[in-house]
Amino acid sequence: MQVFVVYCHPSKKSFTHDMKQEFLKGLSDANHKFVVSDLYEMNFHEEMSEEEYEREAYYSTEIPVADDVMEEQRKIQQSDAIVFIYPVFWTEAPAKLVGWFDRVWTSGFAYNPDPQMNILKKALFLVSAGKTLESLEETGESNAMRIVMLGDRIRNRALEKEMMIFDGTTHWDEAGRNERLAGHLINAYKAGVNF
Ligand SMILES: Cc1cc2nc3c(=O)[nH]c(=O)nc-3n(C[C@H](O)[C@H](O)[C@H](O)COP(=O)(O)O)c2cc1C
């Protein structure tokens, strides 16, 4: 498969970075092809301009889509699947990735009128979280994250959709963390191989 990976983490010194590397290694080993948009490295501009807002809220629908947004849309149209890799920030994605959706999911591409975006075979979210899965489930936060990403942002734009949460990444208990993260890295590699 041709896979488009949207990666968003501010630092290379992170579990999320290592997890992304393992996933990409898995994709390569399974002979999948991929392109990566590393949103921090490419300095993706996440803020909507006034003109972009006017276009997306249907005040001035003739305003053209910006070149950097078109480039991201082109990568989607040339792919069979999309993968988002990021850390949870306040039960959401980092602002840069939220802004990526604000700007890239344009009207005429991802939603009405006449959306041109190809339906993808698969959308996968690989999400790292400081909290434990138990805690995220107990509060309903993991469910909220799935509703927003899989339910709203992906909706029917992919045939298969899944969010994998790699939990317990905080540094409060280094020994436990190292053990957990070693298992997470293996699972990230497997997610790439079995994609
Ligand atoms: C601004 C900020 C907000 C965060 N919010 C959450 C949160 O709502 N839930 C959670 O489980 N972890 C949260 N975390 C923890 C991150 O998800 C954690 O740093 C992440 O899993 C990645 O670790 P890494 O930087 O080693 O990749 C937050 C971290 C930061 C910096």
TrEMBL record:
UniProt cross-references to SUPFAM superfamilies, sorted A to Z: Flavoproteins (SSF52218)
GO molecular function, one term: NAD(P)H dehydrogenase (quinone) activity
Keyword check for Oxidoreductase: yes
GO cellular component, one term: cytosol
Entry keyword set: Oxidoreductase
Residue ranges annotated for the Flavodoxin-like fold domain, each copy included: 1-146
Family in the record: Belongs to the NAD(P)H dehydrogenase (quinone) family.
Name of this chain's protein: NAD(P)H dehydrogenase (Quinone)
Organism: Lacrimispora xylanisolvens
